Every structure is written in C-alpha cells, then in structure tokens.
Amino acid sequence: MNKVRIITKVERTLCNNLNGLLRAGINSIKLPEGIQWDEVVCREHASLSTTEKVDDKVPVFGSTLKFYTCQDIQDHKNYAYRLRLADGSHLLLGTERRPFPVMTVQDSMPETPSDNSWTEITVTWSSLYPPAQIVG
Fold first, then answer.
1. Can you tell me the distance from the alpha carbon of 96 to that of 39, in angstroms, rounded to the nearest whole number?
2. Strand, coil or helix: what is 18?
C-alpha cells in the first residue's frame, strides 16, 4: 500500500524537551507527555530527504529538511522537528542527544518584487537512526 508522504506541517521544540523519549524500534519512537511544540509557518510544502550510508560497517542516516518561511526563527538553540504528513502521521527529526539537527538559514533580497523573498531553511541531521514515526 502506498503512503502519501507530503509534509503538511512543521513544528519544533528544544531538544532538551525530549528527555524521556523511548525508541520503540529503528523506525518508531514514543514521546514523553506535555511537550510544547511551536508551529513554523511554512510555504507549502516542506521536503525531507534521507540517505543511508555504511561507515565502518555501521549504517549512518543523513536527513535534510527544507522549507521556506517568513518567520525569524534563527536563535542559535538546538531544536528537534515534528513533521506532520498528509495521512496524519508524524515524523521526528532529532532527539535529546547529540548530534542535534543543524539549521542553515539563507535569506535573500530579490532583484524584482515578483522573485522569492521567503527565507529558505535547511535542517540537516546525521544519526544512527532514520527520522522515526511518532507512535502512541
């Protein structure tokens, strides 16, 4: 059965808010109760790509989240990202431990008013696990 893998919402929380999360398998995770998520206003739709490579016989996953926003969200703190998919499921990018996701901000001032003036955000994360589906 094919899944609709379109990101409809991007939210974030400080990584230290994830203390107590439980990994339920390589692809699933259970979050602690009461986490405060801040929605990031995005131009539809965000994109996520994940690669896997084997380094010294250990699989390493690299994930790249890209989206455009008009918010000023750069405050140099460590954030994890919750991604809502079109089917209602959620993915988690990041954990409470290092390595934390790294956010790169590209701000542009277009030559003409009709060009893109949104801020491009790229979040990269390397881990021994792929982005996990949030369960329960």
1. 19
2. helix
C-alpha 45/C-alpha 67 separation (Å) is 7
Could you tell me which residues come within 8 angstroms of residue 92 by beta carbon, excluding any fewer than 6 positions away? Answer: 29, 31, 80, 81, 82, 83, 131, 132, 133, 134
SS3 16: helix
**In what helix (H) or strand (E) does residue 92 lie, and over which residues does it extend?**
strand 90-93
Structure tokens at 97: 């431990």
122 is written with which tokens? 């790229």
Mean pLDDT, consecutive 10-residue stretches, the chain (136 aa), reads: 78 97 92 96 92 93 95 92 95 96 89 79 95 92
pTM for the model: 0.90
The tokens describing 43, both together, are 């131009």
Q: Name the phi and psi angles at 10, rounded to 5.
A: -120, 130
Q: Are strands 119-127 and 42-55 parallel, antiparallel or unpaired?
A: unpaired
